[in-house]
Design a protein that fits this description.
By secondary structure, the protein is of the alpha/beta class. The chain is 25% helix and 19% strand. It has helices at 50-61, 65-82, 168-178, 281-284, 290-299, 316-322, 327-342, 361-372, 407-413, 442-455, 471-486, 512-515, and strands spanning 45-46, 86-89, 96-104, 111-116, 131-132, 138-146, 150-158, 191-193, 200-205, 231-239, 244-252, 275-278, 307-311, 354-359, 379-383, 430-436, 459-465.
């Protein structure tokens, strides 16, 4: 099991008030170009797309087998040219699109399964089986999706021998076993590395989906070789709090300042690098290429040069044992990783310029770190946090969705450090949530936690997006959150409690021109002037 149900068919559309849009290619700080679709239903619904419906009609009218073969070949040629899934407008639903997933089968193909985050219900996999267009090699499945949907998916064909399973229980078991063989869509070139295995998932984004100008995806416009490049190193630490060694990925910006571990007399913290502490470094740096994103953000001048410390998650079992609301892992981050790095590189000592971030169980870890160690971590980015987690759960066990008030909300209600004038003058952390509409009760749980945090003096924002539990969404929103939290723009100094923007004080904490080579706005990797 993953740290959160990975494939959800349920939707919570009741609370869309926190929806914000990240920077667009035409306006990096004040997006206005995307339509507001939050009043429309975001629930995926079955539909037959216009192109498949037209092919079916044409096949019925074909005079012979040769004509049918020609029609099918033309259909596949068009699909190869445009890419898949097919995305088509609907006359009766302008705020939605017909999204058709395709698979080219052969004589041995018995069924084809779609595994799409935010669409496929893992408890009802038969609902995500593709339909076969009789007399052809075309397999298809269409969904009506709101036009701001983004997600990743895999597909797999069943070519096993034997009788076709009619019993729904046996079929579900067969489809569960089939998932291990799923892979990327051959006709979709936009892909993202899969978690924990040497494979890729396919990605699609509908026209009104928030843009991801810095992610390094094929359509983002992020350059690879013509901007200053930061460095990524992998170090092994003796993690005393965990009783084992751990690898930590370290990103340093282009032309990082020389080794200066001790603050000189009269030196201001402004000459030190803001810091991001990020869970799951093996995914973000080992597979997703976060360096490209941070390089582009810095080159575009929207993010100051900063450092990133990202410990490996090691593996599924270790991740389940260590992440969540666990004091040992937070101690590892706060008392071992950060001090170790601060002794080697000029990192900020200011909590409000130190961000801790994570996804799923990592998001839960980030929240726990920000709440219990606000003197170290002054800003939190919690993406799809596993708020079902509570002490005493067996590793790998997911608590039921309907758990009432999350355990972390109960914990937060009893902490005094969240008050604006907390213990020893420590200010409560700024907390930002990214939540997918297709993540079960997560929107409800984050709202319950948000209310508690605000009552305790924290500054809290939330972005509810049309997607699932998905790196395809997180990679873009992580960049957006960093721009808001430690960015160089005017909104980086705004009061986070006043609205949807997030800020933590002075706009720039690093002397970029003097210590980082002054890359500045040398080139717009987002395609901006």
């Amino acid at each position: 099991m993953s740290d959160c149900p990975p494939l959800e068919g349920r939707t919570d559309t009741d609370d869309l008030t926190g929806l914000t849009n990240p920077p667009t290619p035409t306006d990096l700080t004040n997006p206005t170009d995307l339509p507001d679709l939050t009043h429309l239903d975001a629930t995926p619904r079955p539909v037959t797309g216009p192109r498949v419906a037209r092919l079916a009609r044409q096949l019925q009218g074909a005079r012979d087998a040769a004509a049918r073969d020609a029609l099918t070949e033309a259909f596949w040629a068009e699909a190869a040219r445009t890419g898949t899934p097919l995305v088509e407008e609907l006359d009766d639903a302008p705020g939605h699109r017909a999204v058709t997933f395709l698979w080219r089968g052969h004589r041995a193909t018995r069924r084809v399964l779609l595994l799409a985050r935010g669409i496929t219900d893992r408890d009802r996999l038969a609902d995500s089986l593709l339909h076969h267009l009789p007399g052809t090699d075309v397999w298809y499945l269409g969904h009506r999706l709101r036009a701001d949907h983004r997600g990743s998916y895999r597909m797999v064909a069943d070519i096993s021998a034997g009788a076709v399973l009619a019993d729904p229980v046996l079929l579900q078991r067969r489809l569960l076993a089939l998932r291990a063989h799923a892979g990327a869509d051959p006709l979709n070139r936009d892909r993202i590395p899969a978690r924990w295995r040497d494979a890729e998932d396919s990605v699609f984004a509908l026209p009104a989906a928030p843009p991801q100008p810095w992610t390094g995806s094929p359509h983002s416009g992020v350059p690879r070789g013509d901007i200053p490049r930061g460095t990524v190193e992998r170090h092994t630490l003796a993690a005393g709090a965990l009783g084992a060694e751990r690898d930590v990925w370290v990103y340093l910006p282009p032309d990082a300042v020389p080794y200066r571990p001790v603050r000189e007399p009269g030196e201001r913290d402004g000459h030190r690098l803001p810091l991001l502490v990020l869970c799951d470094g093996d995914m973000w740096f080992g597979r997703l290429g976060l360096r490209d994103t941070v390089d582009a953000l810095i080159a575009d001048g929207v993010l100051p040069p900063l450092a990133v410390l990202a410990p490996d998650a090691v593996g599924t079992a270790t991740r389940r044992l260590e992440l969540g609301g666990r004091e040992s892992y937070v101690s590892f981050l706060a008392d071992e990783v950060v001090p170790w790095a601060s002794a080697r590189w000029p990192l900020t000592g200011r909590a409000e310029r130190t961000v801790v971030a994570g996804q799923g169980l990592g998001g839960m870890t980030a929240l726990y770190a920000g709440l219990t160690r606000p003197e170290r971590f002054g800003a939190v980015v919690a993406q799809s946090p596993s708020l079902w987690w509570r002490p005493g759960l067996e590793p790998g066990t997911v608590a039921p969705d309907a758990v009432g008030t999350p355990w972390l909300a109960t914990l937060a209600a009893g902490l005094r450090d969240g008050l604006p004038s907390g213990r020893d003058g420590v200010r409560g952390a700024v907390v930002h949530f990214d939540v997918g509409l297709h993540e079960g009760a997560l929107a409800e749980h984050t709202e319950a936690l948000r209310a508690v945090l605000r009552a305790r003096g924290h500054r809290v924002t939330r972005n509810v997006h049309n997607g699932g539990h998905d790196y395809a969404c997180w990679r873009g929103f992580l960049a957006d959150a960093l721009v808001k939290l430690v960015g160089t723009g005017a909104d980086a100094s705004a009061d986070p409690g006043a609205g949807p923007d997030i800020g933590t004080g002075p706009a720039l904490d690093v002397d970029a021109a003097g210590s980082q080579g002054g890359t500045g706005l040398t080139r717009s990797s987002a395609g901006c002037p």
